[in-house]
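pinging the channel bc i need a second pair of eyes. not urgent but kinda urgent?? the chain im working w is below, pasted from the shared doc
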Amino acid sequence: MPYCTQAQLEDRFGLGRLVALTDRNAIPLGVIDQDVLARALADTDAVIDGYLAGRYALPLASTPALVADIAQSIALWKLHATEPEAKVKADYEAAMRTLREIAQGVVQLSVAGIEPAASGDSGVQITDRDREFTADNMRGFI
């Protein structure tokens, strides 16, 4: 399941903007190029999965709103074939900063995480030599 959809991108950034970013034909067709958009969304998911993999079980059962917001910012950045405007760059950098914070555990998502690996035994084992002084052989001294 992708972290954001075409409908979410259209709602946030507008259909015209997506057409302008994806329609890369020599003679523009005036529609969203599905292949270009699918590639940007797949690349976006790969980036996000790379940051979430160490802390959360993938694929996520549901997409938290924070992850969807991050995905939309990254996808818009990836759709640009040339240098994007300052707002797009700032949103992308903020999204990447948030992903790093998620990976470090500073920001936590409300989804299932990865269980820590168990060693097989639960409890402490201590191996040591026999005691030279015990309550029995110290009787009379204590």
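so The mean pLDDT is 89. and The chain is about 50% helix and 0% strand. — does that match what u expected or am i reading it wrong
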